[in-house]
Amino acid sequence: MNDVTGTAATRGGRVAAPADIRALALARPGGGARRGTALARLEVMLAVAAFAVLCGVVLSVAPRLVEPDDYAYRASIVAITDGHFLSLSTAQVRALAAQLTRSAGPGKPVLTAPGPLGGSIEQWVRLPSGRWISEKNPGYPFLAAPFQALGIIRLAPLFYGALGCLGLFLGGRRWMGRFGGAAAVGLFCSSGAALLFAWRAYMPTFTEAALIAAGSGALLWAIVAEDAPARRRTATGLLGFLAVEAAVFVRYTNFIVLGCAVAAVLLARWLRAASIPPGALRWWLGSATLFCAGVAAFDDAAYGGPFKTGYRPGEITLSLGATIANSRLMPAHLIQAMPMLVLGLAGIAAITLRRALLRRARADQSRADQSRADRRDFLVGTALAASWFGIWALYATYTWTTQPGLSTLQVARFYVPAIGAIALLGAWPLVRLPRLIRPPDRARLAVATSSAAVAVMACLGLWSFHDMLTPRHSGSPPPHCNIGQPRCPAKPPVLGSSRDPR
Fold it and tell me: Which of 47, 152, 178, 299 to pair with 136, CA 20 to 30 A apart?
């Protein structure tokens, strides 16, 4: 052979192995680049396909108003599209109730009941001034109102879901390497909880989870991409903080995630200055500070105090004593709604174990670069786990979910905001383990492993989605009760009721 490959293959009187020939072929001008481009396109296609499946499943099922919460948020969203951005007078809220009763839309027939609001508006409260406002946290109606005004409310959670997938893809790929982003997106889109709450367009659950995922991915990219321009990293990190702040405005308990983000960037700056661009902390922490001040000002204007909300005192109760009952009742619900949490726990265990093993071998200078990468993986995994477990630990103390007989649909939604962190942690073993065992073609094995795992999770997610829908589609509809209405309890009613104060 007189070509380049043939000459190299017989150089030194040694016949090259097939793996050597493949490496030499890739070394040809344009060979490796073409293969890299093909793999990059495949990764993007897999991520887009995962999100497309989520959209297809969600839009294929007719929408319904499932719980009182759907009615509460729908009333707030429609009120904003009518030009009422904070509270409504009694005359305005009665007109809104009549408007919603006439235009029940594709959901179940709207029930009417005695009281000041009627059955078409649920869980609103009357302020001391005599005006009415939803007891729910205020963020989601502002995010969904443009879609309601355009008549495409079902696309609202899917739009924010696309942002979440984009953040996970960029952050996961930069952290884990090729196919890390696609695996994270696939796990994020495949759970039954994601499908269920993306289907419930008037509920904020999937939107807040997607915003947290987008923010987490953007911050991950900004911290890990040390070779990128400082301005781009600063801007991307700022967008990440803005996304997390929007999620906090949707549900105030997501302050835990914002606190974890602030702690993570401060820790990263302290451990390795190059991980944070110069001047980025001023932008990022300044954004968080201004947001907190803005929320306090909004609450003061809307509810009469910077630390007040629409919930009446004693309506939302947290107790350490509830953790025992929740630890017994919740695991089955969470496994059904988010089976990929098993992969997330496996990712935490694998990252921790690898870090522990490499600490023993730290004297080996030849492994210094690998030790640095694994130290970075450990810090990123710790930050994601703190965000995940912080949210779940808070709701483990929630007394309402300790009632036996509640369905997965009713109780799992409080834990859904963590699915972005779970997806990133769950993708790690799928992408990194093939590299650790060093097979002949690691990229192909990573694709096969990730695709198989996501496919299994998607099948479980589809089953979970339809299983969670079934109890709500059969039998009598849940009782409706308006906070502020006579004989309406502020606390959860008797065992087995579907009344949920949140």
Answer: 152
Answer yes or no: are the C-beta atoms of 80 and 89 closer than 8 Å: no
For 335-361, how does the pLDDT look when each residue is reduced to its tens digit (9 = 90+)?
999 999 999 999 999 999 888 877 665
pLDDT at 422 over 70: yes
Cα angle, residue 309 at apex, residues 303 and 311 outer, rounded to 5°: 115
Residue 369: pLDDT band (50, 70, 90) is: low
The residues near 360 (Cβ < 8 Å, ≥ 6 apart) are: none
Residues 6+ apart with CB under 8 A from 8: 16, 24
Q: Which residues of 398-423 are buried (b: 16+ CB within 10 A; e: fewer)?
A: bbbbbbeebebbbbbbbbbbbbbbbb
Q: What is the pLDDT of residues 270-284, one digit of tens each?
A: 988 888 998 999 999
Q: How far apart are CA 497 and CA 43, in angstroms?
A: 46
Return the SS3 of 124.
strand
> What pairs with residue 318 in β-bridges?
398
Which pLDDT score is estimated for 118? 55
Exposure pattern of 175-211 as b/e (b: 16+ CB <10 Å)?
bbebbbbbbbbbbbbbbbbbbbbbbbbbbbbbbbbbb
Q: Which residues pair with 125 in a beta bridge?
A: 133
Q: How far apart (Å, rounded) are the C-alpha atoms in residues 89 and 124?
A: 12
pLDDT category of residue 100 using cuts at 50, 70 and 90: confident
Pick from 253, 490, 274: nearest CA to 392: 253
Q: How far apart are CA 482 and CA 125, in angstroms?
A: 8
Around Cβ 14, how many Cβ atoms within 10 Å?
Answer: 9
